[in-house]
Specification:
Length: 451
């Protein structure tokens, strides 16, 4: 068939149309490709810091992207978080608003020794969600409409340990369990109703392990300190199963379709998806505070590279997953991300001012990141940027026993950014996002001299 329109250019982004429905988790047409849209490997604190995590080493927050940081954990720490996003999606001729959001992640960390810590948690690895139409014509069948729908995604549970190998050097490793499913449907509907509609349903189920490791080197600089951080995730073949059913059907218009003949069926075929190699290098300069596991201020920068050209959605080991549009992998370049961040607690950063207000105890944060995603559509590379501002609000603490420590921090922030472009009839997404999380710190496993 010869399409009269390209796939992404004709998303028919008409406000109020039946295809403009919000999906759970993601509402982006770009989530059709690869494993979906890969999510930040971060809880609220580091998400608002723009993902500058390779060199981050706070003793109060869980940092799953840098397992070496677990060696610095001083208290039992629980991180919970979520987000709510409004997305303006537009082409040169049409636009609409979509929303999505909800609870996103949970993690815990605690010290095993003064020089060793452990962490575990769960969060989305990728999200898929789209519902869109394209049109075309064929000399034999006439005009037709294709509807593309997708939902689901992969989740990631991490289990990691970090330890101080030398006085200034920490190392760590994560075991990550990847699981979840992608459900994708393509409907081919002919305008001439003498031809039955055709539906293709596809499901990819994934369940397997992958590993990542990290290292941090602390460099004292008088009253300041510099931290160099490196993380590495080796490319991983993740065991998966794939089901593919194609059949004709009659649409009743009420949402209850009548299946007719099965054209082909593949059920539970074993194979794999391939998650690409990733490396990040970061630098953070901060001002430590004596006897406290936090810094008065910090500035950080990070470069991350992902070998996106390695990515495979599903592979049997001998043949490509599917060779027809739009399922062909389109990551034609490797991904690159640059991030910078800064944070400050005024009462600690300016001790000479003797600041006593609640506002001086708040942690203020800001970050910016720019990314070349590696996705190339209509000969156009897809880029993205993201800016973040936020605060960490101390919620106070209490002690039940002498020396006991219990306190919490509420993280609130706002993010704005773009993904994609209107050039060459593509879609540009402008989004605003509210990020909310809470960190609970508690001192466990205490040994008391007096009771």
């Amino acid at each position: 068939m010869k399409r009269t329109c390209k796939f992404l250019p004709l998303l028919l982004l008409l406000a109020g149309g039946p295809w403009a429905l919000a999906q759970s988790g993601s509402v982006s047409p770009y989530s059709l490709y690869g494993h979906g849209l890969v999510q930040p490997n971060a809880f609220a604190y580091h998400q608002l810091m723009g993902g500058t995590q390779a060199a981050a080493h706070s003793g109060l927050y869980v940092n799953p992207a840098q397992p070496a940081s677990y060696a610095n954990i001083r208290y039992t720490t629980l991180d919970l978080g979520g987000s709510y996003q409004g997305i303006h999606q537009s082409t040169k001729t049409a636009s609409l608003w979509n929303t999505t959001g909800g609870f996103r992640n949970m993690g815990i960390a605690f010290p095993l020794k003064k020089w060793m810590g452990f962490s575990a948690g769960v969060m989305p690895y990728s999200l898929t969600g789209y519902d869109m139409l394209t049109g075309g014509s064929d000399p034999d069948f006439g005009e037709y409409v294709q509807q593309y729908q997708g939902k689901g995604g992969f989740n990631k549970a991490h289990f990691g340990v970090g330890f101080t190998a030398l006085k200034y050097l920490s190392l760590g490793v994560n075991a990550n369990y990847v699981f979840g499913s992608l459900d994708q449907t393509t409907n081919l509907i002919f305008v001439n109703n003498q031809f039955n509609a055709v539906r293709l349903t596809q499901r990819t189920l994934t369940s397997d392990w992958m590993w990542d490791a990290g290292a941090q080197l602390r460099i004292p600089m008088g009253s300041l300190q510099a931290m160099l951080g490196l993380t590495f995730r080796d490319g991983s073949s993740i065991q998966s199963t794939y089901s593919d059913v194609s059949y004709t059907y009659i649409s009743t218009g009420s949402g209850m379709d009548t299946p007719l003949d099965t054209g082909s069926a593949i059920v539970g075929e074993s194979g794999l998806i391939y998650i690409p190699t990733q490396m990040a290098l970061g630098l953070e300069i901060s001002k430590p505070v004596k006897d406290l596991p936090i810094s008065a201020w910090s500035i950080g920068a990070q470069y991350q590279m992902t070998e996106q050209m390695e990515l495979l959605p599903f592979w049997t080991g001998t043949l490509p997953w599917l060779s027809s549009e739009p399922w062909t992998p389109v990551y034609a370049e490797n991904g690159h991300r640059f991030s910078v961040s800064a944070s400050m607690i005024p009462s600690l950063a300016l001790p000479g001012k003797r600041l006593k207000s609640y506002g001086s105890e708040v942690a203020y944060r800001a970050s910016f990141q720019y990314e070349s995603t590696g996705l190339v559509l209509n000969s156009t590379p897809i880029h993205a940027w993201l800016g973040s501002v936020g605060v960490g609000l101390p919620l106070g603490g209490r002690a039940i026993l002498p020396g006991d420590v219990k306190f919490a921090t509420l993280h609130i922030g706002a993010q704005v950014g773009t993904y994609g472009t209107k050039q060459n009839n593509l879609v540009q997404e402008f989004f605003t996002q509210a990020v909310v999380g809470v960190t609970l710190n508690d001192q466990w496993f205490m040994k008391f001299k007096y009771r």
